Amino acid sequence: MSTHNGSVPGSAEPSSQEHTRRTLLVIGGAEDKRRRTLVLKRFVELAGGREARIVVIPTASSMAEEAFDVYQSVFGRLRSREVSLVNPQTRLETSEPSLAEAIDNATGVFVTGGNQLKLGQLIVGTPLHEAITRAYHRGAVISGTSAGASVLSQFMISMGEEGVAPRQRVSQLSAGLGLLPGVILDQHFGQRTRYARLLSLVAASPSLLGVGIDEDTAAEIVDERSMTVVGSGAVYVVDARAAVSDAHEARHAAPLMVSGAVVHSLPYGAHFDLGAAQLLDFQEMHPEVAVVTSPTDAHDTANAAAALRR
Amino acid sequence: MSTHNGSVPGSAEPSSQEHTRRTLLVIGGAEDKRRRTLVLKRFVELAGGREARIVVIPTASSMAEEAFDVYQSVFGRLRSREVSLVNPQTRLETSEPSLAEAIDNATGVFVTGGNQLKLGQLIVGTPLHEAITRAYHRGAVISGTSAGASVLSQFMISMGEEGVAPRQRVSQLSAGLGLLPGVILDQHFGQRTRYARLLSLVAASPSLLGVGIDEDTAAEIVDERSMTVVGSGAVYVVDARAAVSDAHEARHAAPLMVSGAVVHSLPYGAHFDLGAAQLLDFQEMHPEVAVVTSPTDAHDTANAAAALRR
């Protein structure tokens, strides 16, 4: 574990007005870090802009120090006031008071990509988890990308296979941070063809709404209900609440019967009600954003770190 | 053009009772030809079993003669009475009376895979097309696999890109045989990740129902309405009739906004009403079928032809 400050000039506290809403910025991975940085810019804005005090948690990454350097650099360029590192490597370390203190002082918490099982095992149910929940409820924006996105919901997809054909018991859930109840978050959605795994999970648990997020795209979710899409891809909602399915009896790996699921493909500018599972409005946006795709989060981190060194 | 008989012992005419219904057997490509042959067995059964007089149209295939040999062999093993070849290579040839005569004499017509644009250009709107329509209305089963499946509907997908993220104007339609109005048929659905292309097309034309079929799987459609699924994969229905979309104004290649489409994943034994777009019933089937997948139809034909020679 270590905490580390990378101060950026800035001043004043964020106004209390900005912090009455609970805000998540759930990112589908491989967000642009070098050009338009549309998604990360939004994160810094939500964290208070020049007053932002950001904690980065790169614990999921196999290259945690590099991942921190990359985000510290980006958030610095975006003029956030302070960027700190919280990087526990064992479950025991998450009890160290300095970690909770760092989170308690933050206006934004950013969880990087990597291995989401590691996040689940190290952080969920620990004092660090409690600190993140506290921060969320006092209005700090909580954001995660890729694995860091998945862990934000109550039920976290821990694995599954690619494709459009839902099959029985090839996807699995485990416990996440629970900041977004009633939703399963998935990431790298279009790029890794995760439609089938999300559909098969919500078919088995129709009370949960499936939300899949493309790379370089984020779902900005306020008060666990109002969702706005930001970025170059789309956010997909899969709603099986009215569907009929044989998910309770189909054999292992058999094609699943799922009839009557409702789907939504929501690009930048869509505004969606997660409670009613309905589109509220849509203002088409035409940003000239870079579409960034990487085979793995480690690859993405390595690329960004190499660019940083140049 | 050539016609060619491959007689199989058999007798009696199919009873008129069996032929009062209009029947399509729409196959998603790469159907098992060597082991359980579940889908092709169903075709022969629908064509009258031992009384079946089948016409194979391999015009779409780059290996038409080999494709014919393969299906002649399979349909022979399945004890159909007669297997004939209709293989025009120009649009002019489709006017030759012997082709229409062969179709007029058939209890089943089978259109192979290959290049569906060739099928569209050579056959649609010709006397051969008229003969197929006549055969369909007098109760002969009309079947096609892969490209041969796509051409059966009124609006035929002629191209499109893979993925789950629907995008503007990356898929195209052209005119098919029109035996199934109101539906867009797609094939190799799960194997080639064709969810996005089908969704983007029905988003632009919400009056049409999208029906995507997996490999080694068929949609058996009676009177253009009652659909039953046969085979080792699934049939997918995408219904955008109640969806909201920006398909009328989104820029080329932009992520499409499609909110509220209803989807159905229907394995073997599902029975579905294409008019109401509703599941009627589902009897789970557990056939031990071979799952056959091939990168291309030509590859599939070559494999089957090689097996035939052995």
TrEMBL record, chains A, B:
EC number(s) on record?
3.4.15.6
Q: Where is this region: Disordered?
A: 1-20
Kindly state which keywords UniProt assigns to this record, in alphabetical order.
Carboxypeptidase, Hydrolase, Protease, Serine protease
The protein's GO terms of the molecular function aspect are: carboxypeptidase activity; peptidyl-dipeptidase activity
Reaction equations catalysed: [L-4-(L-arginin-2-N-yl)aspartate](n) + H2O = [L-4-(L-arginin-2-N-yl)aspartate](n-1) + L-4-(L-arginin-2-N-yl)aspartate
Matching Pfam families: Peptidase_S51 (PF03575)
Top-level taxon in the UniProt lineage: Bacteria
Give the enzyme class. hydrolase
Where is composition skewed (Polar residues) in this entry? 1-15
Return the InterPro entries for the record: Class_I_gatase-like, Peptidase_S51, Peptidase_S51_cyanophycinase
NCBIfam families registered for this protein in UniProt = cyanophycinase
What is the protein's known function? Exopeptidase that catalyzes the hydrolytic cleavage of multi-L-arginyl-poly-L-aspartic acid (cyanophycin; a water-insoluble reserve polymer) into aspartate-arginine dipeptides.
Q: Which family does it belong to?
A: Belongs to the peptidase S51 family.
Task: Identify this protein by name.
Answer: Cyanophycinase
Q: In which organism is this protein found?
A: Ornithinimicrobium cryptoxanthini
